[in-house]
Amino acid sequence: MKHKFFILGISIFLIASVIFPLQVAAQQKNFIDQPFLETTASVDTLVVPDRIYLNILISEADTKGRISVEELENRMAAKLKSLGIDLDTQLSLGDLGSDFKKYFLRKTDIQKEKAFKLLLYDGLTVGKVLQGLETIGISNISLDKTEYSQMGALKLKLKVRAIVQARKQASELVEAIGQNLGKAIHVQDFEPNFITLRGVSPLRAKADESFEPLDVEFNKIKVEGRLNVKFAID
Question: Is the pTM for the entire model greater than 0.85?
Answer without folding.
Answer: no
